[in-house]
Specification:
The complex is a heterodimer. By secondary structure, chain A is mostly beta strands. Helices cover 0% and strands 55% of the residues of chain A. The chains are: A mainly beta, B mainly beta.
């Protein structure tokens, strides 16, 4: 298995632009998570899905952020409009609930200028 | 919400030394995981350990759920062990994995 695949690896965008981050979980995993990592706040859970259904989005910072999981093999995290304070590394992770550990993707480093 | 505290925050070792990292958590948890974030930013799952002891090469981990702590042991450390070690706990009866603030380890030759 290729693991959790995220794209792009790096994204530099101007303030106000829309940004879409993508994630392909490990085949067979039924839970998917989006995390954000910053120096100030560490690793924060933004939202997670179980069987493609959003279960808890209480970590989503504001309405500018949205996430979807249209099928078991694909999820997106969208920021519209982006702001400089959104600059961070965004990680996607997946797991089979109750079975074992989480597998993280390589992350997307987002810079908003 | 649940609090996850790790100690020490920073650790500097010479190659070959042993170390123990600690994770304390404030509430009942479904499971606990240890991760290593390497200098390139990749998060690698080391252990899935809700209770008991597991070993993988030079690394081992012990979780005492009733006393709400876990320990990660690194023996004969190598420079490739450098990075940040995170403990993460899953809230009881949820899938939410909450991370501690990490221990930054630097191993020098």
């Amino acid at each position: 298995d290729a693991g959790v695949i995220q794209s792009p690896r790096h994204e530099v965008t101007e303030m106000g632009q829309e940004v879409t981050l993508r994630c392909k979980p490990i085949s067979g995993h039924n839970s998917l998570f989006w995390y954000r990592q910053t120096m100030m706040r560490g690793l924060e859970l933004l939202i997670y899905f179980n069987n493609n259904v959003p279960i808890d989005d209480s970590g989503m910072p504001e309405d500018r952020f949205s996430a979807k999981m249209p099928n078991a093999s694909f999820s997106t995290l969208k920021i519209q409009p982006s702001e400089p304070r959104d600059s961070a590394v965004y990680f996607c992770a997946s797991t089979m609930t109750g079975i074992g550990g989480y597998t993280f993707g390589s992350g997307t480093r987002l810079t908003v200028v | 919400g649940i609090q996850v505290e790790q100690s020490p925050p920073d650790l500097i070792l010479q190659e070959g030394a042993n170390s123990t990292l600690r994770c304390n958590f404030s509430d009942s948890v479904n499971n606990l995981q240890w991760f290593h974030q390497n200098p390139w930013g990749q998060l690698i799952n080391l252990f899935y350990i809700p209770s008991g002891t597991k070993q993988n090469g030079r690394l081992s981990a012990t979780t005492v759920a009733t006393e709400r702590y876990s320990l990660l042991y690194i023996s004969s450390s190598q420079t490739t062990d450098s990075g940040v070690y995170f403990c993460a706990v899953e809230y009881y009866n949820t899938d939410k994995l909450i991370f501690g603030t990490g221990t930054r380890l630097q191993v020098f030759p």
